[in-house]
TrEMBL record:
Keyword Transferase included in the entry's annotation: yes
Transmembrane segments: 158-176, 188-212, 244-267, 274-294, 306-329, 336-359, 371-391
Coiled-coil region: none
InterPro entries, per the entry: CDP-OH_P_trans, CDP-OH_PTrfase_TM_dom, CDP_ALCOHOL_P_TRANSF_CS, CHOPT
This protein's record includes keyword Transmembrane helix: yes
GO cellular component: membrane
Record organism: Mortierella isabellina
Localization, UniProt: Membrane
Name used for this protein in its record: Uncharacterized protein
Annotated GO MF terms: phosphotransferase activity, for other substituted phosphate groups
Main location per the UniProt record: membrane
Gene3D superfamilies for this protein: 1.20.120.1760
Length: 417
């Protein structure tokens, strides 16, 4: 049954080592949210919204009811529907009918709402635990890439280097937060964070694109604020969508400084080696560097075949984040190596064969497209194997189901006897 995730893949290797498995029962969520918008506006709304969902605690094991993870998945299905709409109208990430952008705004707001209340519902039903955090972060990681593609259309980025840069900024912010949580044990949301203010801004962007069309974002700042030509010519000459990318870059830079500081303090206070902890950001930097070298040598991907590349990178990113979260839940060593880097390295080496060995690439131009889709297919298979395997391991350990509540409980998940 899909709701139980009870059947492991044949020959599946355990992603949770027996050496660290018992640490699952010691896990306790820790989070800090300093957002004023969240505290005074959104949290009261979320508290009312969660009460609309019945507790659904099963009194009969033969009649399972929905778990908070199903709330999370429902939100993800909303943005996946948005992605399907985008790919139906403009797989080249171009301009869609205006009504589509309204649907993007609605889908993202619904996702944020359901993502915010799944934890509240878990506490109401006594079903909170490591599986919920893994499921929540996994959906957030996938939504990051999905929403990026939607915003690419809304902001009229199209297939360009600006899109590539924005992708790095978006994924970098999420990776940074996950890496920081692994070392500090706490999820930090500052006064301005992606999951709160960032999403509200994206909802506004989608709505504005619905009203005026994505072409609105091609205006220069000076077109709206004429005084900028004299006061700050550089800003005035920026297009609105370019300004958004610059804002994302600055936000990431500030978060990197704060994240490195928090990780340094955490490692020092726990008397752990600081350098290995700080090097946890290196896999993401390495992936960005390899991707850049590939795209620089094969620019047709950027301007003609960016969709499969972004989908591949997104699935790879979800896999890497999943590995980090699993290690965080079990207090296992940080996963520096990512299997998904292998296709990325192959593509990079192939594209740079003329520069390295003076020979033609094995595949280039149109022949590179099948390889890109193969990379995406490979990443989906690996990520699916990981997700199903880890969910099975957690469900078996806690004697629970993934998308339904198996036992009537008064407290949180505890290890089965």
């Amino acid at each position: 049954c899909f709701l139980t995730f009870s059947t492991c893949l044949p020959g599946a290797m355990p992603y949770i080592s027996s050496k660290y498995r018992d640490n699952l029962s010691k896990y306790k969520y820790s989070g800090t949210d300093k957002s004023l918008l969240s505290r005074y506006v959104l949290t009261p709304y979320w508290n009312r919204l969660v009460k609309l969902f019945p507790l659904w605690v099963a009194s009969n094991r033969n009649k399972p009811h929905d778990s908070p993870n199903l709330i999370t998945m429902s939100g993800l299905l909303c943005v996946m529907t948005n992605l399907a709409t985008l790919l139906y109208y403009r797989p080249d990430l171009g301009t869609c009918p205006n009504w589509v952008y309204y649907s993007f705004a609605a889908g993202l707001f619904i996702y944020q709402s359901l993502d915010a209340i799944d934890g509240k519902q878990a506490r109401r039903t006594g079903s909170s635990g490591p599986l919920g955090e893994l499921f929540d972060h996994g959906c957030d990681a996938l939504n990051t890439t999905i929403e990026f593609l939607l915003v690419t259309s809304s902001l009229h980025f199209g297939q360009s280097w600006l899109t590539v840069a924005a992708l790095a900024f978006s994924l970098g912010a999420f990776y940074l937060s996950t890496w920081e949580e692994y070392h500090t044990g706490t999820l930090y949301l500052s006064y301005f964070s992606g999951p709160v203010e960032g999403i509200i801004i994206l909802v506004a962007i989608h709505t504005i694109s619905g009203i005026f069309g994505p072409e609105f974002w091609l205006l220069k700042f000076s077109d709206l604020f004429g005084f900028l030509d004299k006061v700050a010519p550089f800003v005035g000459n920026l297009r609105l969508n370019e300004g958004f990318a610059v804002f994302a870059a600055i936000s990431l830079a500030l978060n990197i400084v704060a994240g490195f500081h928090n990780v340094y303090v955490a490692a020092s206070s726990q008397k752990r080696p600081v350098l290995p902890a700080l090097l946890g950001f290196a896999p993401f930097v390495a992936a960005c560097g390899i991707a850049y070298l590939w795209l620089q040598a094969s620019p047709s991907i950027v301007h003609e075949h960016l969709l499969p590349f972004v989908l591949y990178i997104g699935a790879s990113f979800g896999y890497q984040v999943g590995l980090i979260i699993t290690a965080h839940l079990t207090k296992a060593p940080f996963p520096y190596f990512n299997l998904m880097l292998v296709p990325l390295a192959i593509g990079c080496i192939n594209a740079n064969l003329p520069n390295i060995f003076g020979v033609e690439p094995f595949f280039q131009g149109k022949k590179e497209l099948p390889f890109l889709w193969s990379c995406f297919a490979f990443s989906i298979l690996v990520y699916a194997h990981f997700a199903i395997s880890v969910i099975n391991e957690l469900c078996d350990y806690f004697d629970i189901w993934c998308l339904s509540i198996k036992h009537k409980k008064a407290g949180d998940q505890t290890k089965k006897d």
